[in-house]
Specification:
The protein is an alpha/beta fold. The protein has a six-stranded mixed beta sheet, with helices on both faces. Strands 3-1-8-5-6 form a five-stranded mixed beta sheet, with no helix packed on it. Strand 10 and strand 11 form a beta hairpin. It is rod-shaped, with a radius of gyration of 29 Å. The two termini are about 30 Å apart.
């Protein structure tokens, strides 16, 4: 199962304690304080990387702490700084802090490989007793302890980054289309909800390349979470173009089209305003006369003539891909 949301607790490393010691050499039996400073604790970083697909790292583990700084030593030797703890997440991860009052504060939107945000700072190391000598107190026998690291509760949300999003009711032909126009191999079958996780495919045509996301089939009530719709809809937020697939198997093509449009608007009006290409799919299943009627119904509802394709025979596929490139 794809993990695209996680709540975790992070803590920066504690700073190392300052050291208490005094200079002792052959000819300096009563030297002054020379205790070194403790090293700073490590930071916790979240970094976008190309490898992870989803937030599987956080499926079972939810608490992460960076290493502590090293304690100071003799002869004014400072302790080593604690190493940073780097949490790898997929590109497209949004990092938010969950505040005590219930609000959420966005810390980063990691959209490129290598983009990094520090989510918890390590504590400062304590001062050694070398810093506390005065004319009155020349042999201080105390040092400063290291400070605790910063703590935060975080929400991680992964949103696919794709140029094009395929949307439609279950069994509209999205996965089949993706498999035809790209190298992706999504699960395909003749029943609803075959796709349970978003799929990505890269399409290459002429000298152009674009990324397509196949979003699991939406149903009425998806914006309110019915059929996990709200979990899937967020994955089309970043797309620049929506391909709205409507199968000729729908008895009421116009109603099928309106259902998805209503869910988009209910979830996020910005999605409803996104550029869209309406596509009538599985054209091979009906007679030419009936296909004309169904196409006309979509054209009237969508306000534009839809593309007509058959992934089974590849009819209309090259024209649709070039139309997508033109929009992008």
């Amino acid at each position: 199962m794809l993990i695209d949301e996680a709540t975790i607790h992070v803590q920066g490393g504690r700073g190392g304690d300052g050291h208490v010691s005094f200079r002792r050499e052959k000819y300096v039996p009563n030297g002054g304080p020379d205790g070194g400073d403790g090293g700073r604790g490590g930071d916790v970083l979240v970094r976008a990387e190309a490898g992870p697909h989803g937030l599987d790292l956080f499926r079972r583990k939810h608490d992460f702490a960076a290493p502590e700084g090293e304690q100071g030593g003799r002869q004014q030797k400072s302790g080593k700084r604690g190493e940073d703890l780097v949490l790898a997440v997929p590109v497209g991860t949004v990092v938010r802090e969950l505040l005590p009052d219930g609000r959420k504060q966005q810390l980063a939107d990691l959209q490129t490989v290598g983009q990094t945000v520090r989510v918890a700072r390590g504590g400062n190391g304590g001062w050694g007793n070398q810093h506390f000598a005065t004319s009155i107190k020349q042999a201080p026998d105390w040092a400063k302890p290291g400070q605790p690291g910063e703590q935060r509760k975080l929400e991680l949300e992964w949103q696919l980054i794709a140029d094009v999003g395929l949307i439609g009711l279950p069994n509209a032909g999205k996965s089949t289309l993706l498999s035809v126009i790209s190298r992706a191999k999504p699960k395909i079958a003749a029943y609803p909800f075959t796709t349970l996780e978003p799929e990505l495919g890269v399409v290459e045509i002429d000298d152009k390349t674009f990324v397509v996301a196949d979003i699991p089939g939406l149903i009425a009530g998806a914006s309110e979470g019915k059929g996990l719709g709200d979990a899937f809809l967020k994955h089309v937020r970043r797309t620049g173009l929506l391909i709205h697939l409507i199968s000729v198997e729908n008895e009421d093509m116009a109603e099928a089209y309106r259902t998805i449009r209503q869910e988009l608007a209910a979830f996020d009006q910005a999605l409803a305003d996104r550029p869209e290409i309406a596509v009538v799919t599985k054209s091979e299943l009906v007679a030419p006369v009936e296909l004309v009627e169904k196409t006309a119904a979509i054209a009237q509802t969508a306000g534009q003539p839809p593309a007509v394709i058959s992934a089974a025979t590849h009819a209309g596929i090259p024209e649709l891909v070039r139309q997508i490139v033109s929009h992008l």
